[in-house]
Structures are given as structure tokens and as C-alpha cells.
Amino acid sequence: MRTVASYHHKGGVGKTTTAVALAANAAAAGHRTLLWDLDPQGSATRLVGVDRGIDGGVTALFDDPAGLAGQALDTAHERLRVVPADLSLRWLDRWFADGGGTADGSLDAAMERAAAEFDLLVLDCQPAVSAASAAVLRATDLVVVPLTAGPLAWSAFADLDAEIDAMTAEQRPDVLAFLTMVDRRKGLHRELVDDVEPTDGFSQVAVPTDSRVERMALAADPLRAVLNGRAGSAYRSLWQEIEASLRGRVRWP
Ligand SMILES: Nc1ncnc2c1ncn2[C@@H]1O[C@H](COP(=O)(O)OP(=O)(O)OP(=O)(O)O)[C@@H](O)[C@H]1O
Ligand SMILES: [Mg+2]
Q1: How far away, in angstroms, is 98 Cα from ligand 2 center?
Q2: What are the b/e assignments for 11-31, b being 16+ CB within 10 Å?
């Protein structure tokens, strides 16, 4: 099983939209996919049509012998299951800060127990710098970082990139940043898109602003907005780039 985390410590940059879009694309491409909503806001949970929380609260995520797979709920989409979020996740950081069983080991163990049933785990992270986010960064294969066109999102990304660079080679995840909510009518947005060089760690994909995405929470099938249309087409390209890079790392289905 490969693990991809959608993360940026800045809020509102498109992490949840990205996690849901990547999970939906992976499932559509044939991978048994588990979306793990780590944000007590529960937005990813709602977007995949689930209105239940964690059975037994946050500690059950790690202590339940059935592990993550035991908490996974079906969605309306084939091969896509979700570990839901609820307000008990407010204790997630405390759990990690206090050692969390064997701390990172327990996160790894929880993931390990899901590995037999899933090909891909997609994490939707909270907008925070915390013990939990540090543990997730260490445990994941790839961190996908959505960047909006504002300078503040970029300077915060530079900090995050430096932090990841400082991790040991064994713990350091790959990083893939990309532009999102791009509005080509705006000069700043056009400049940024034109400046993106095809370098390691930065995707050429720019997800456009798409009103279908803004309205997706109101739709009968919200995932259609990230599988179809202008944003959906960009997210499909982003998924294909990620799929190729995950295949490159190890043998993967
Ligand atoms: N491509 C897009 N086009 C239009 N709106 C978008 C697009 N991507 C995201 N949005 C909207 O931007 C808002 C923030 O997106 P999202 O919730 O994914 O961000 P987030 O980083 O997960 O936020 P938080 O930090 O609160 O978890 C949402 O209202 C979402 O619908
Ligand atoms: Mg979010």
C-alpha cells in the first residue's frame, strides 16, 4: 500500500478538494482506495457522502485490533472507502504529543494493518503544524501540497519544504506541489503558471478555479465535480503523474 497525504499548514488552499479528487481518481483507475479524513471539520467525509463518525472515537483508530480497515465505511463509489472524521479528532494532536502508544510506530502500525486491504491510502490533513502533522509527514510516501496563487501560501510552502528537507533520508517523504484555484484572467495567476518549471517536486498541472468545485458539497454526487469538467480534467492529470511516481518507487499494483 502506498500513502499520499494532502497537506499544507495554511488553511483553505484546497487540501480536502485535492484529497477527495485524488482518492476518487485512484478508485476510478482500479485501485482499492482508503480516504482517511484526519480533520475534525469532516469535510472529506461529507464530500464522499458519509454522515457517520469514528466508531469509539479517536483512540479506536489506533487501538482497534481491526485497525483502519475496521473503521472504513463504504461510499457510493466502487473501490473507494473512507475512515470518517468527527470532533473526537480534536484529541489527535494530544495523542501524538503524549507519545500515542509508541507514537509514530502506532501510526505506522495502523497503516500496516490496512495494507492488506488497500492499494492506496489518501490522507486529508488538518491545516496545522503539530505533533500529528509531523507524524504524518514521517509516515507518508508522498506529500501533495496545493498552492493558491497568493504570496502567503508560497512563503508558507517554502517553510514546509525546508522542514521536509531537514528530515532524515529514511523519514523524508517525496513532495509534489501544484497550483490550484487558478484564474487565468488574473495577471498574477498567469505569471505564476508561466513561471512553473518542470522540476522535481513541482507539477506542471494547474487546477483552474471551477464553480462546479465550489458548489460540489451541494451536489447529489459531489465527486463528479472532481472527476469531470475543467478542474476534474486537471486533477486526472495530477493523479496520473502521482500514479507514475508511486509505481516508480516500488512494485505497485
Ligand atoms: N478548483 C477549485 N475551484 C473552485 N473552488 C475551489 C477549488 N478548489 C477548492 N475550492 C474551494 O475552496 C475552498 C477551500 O477548499 P478546501 O476545503 O479543499 O481547502 P482546505 O485546504 O482543505 O481547507 P482547510 O484548511 O479548511 O481544511 C472550498 O470552498 C472549495 O470548494
Ligand atoms: Mg480541508
Answers
A1: 25
A2: eebbbbbbbbbbbbbbbbeeb
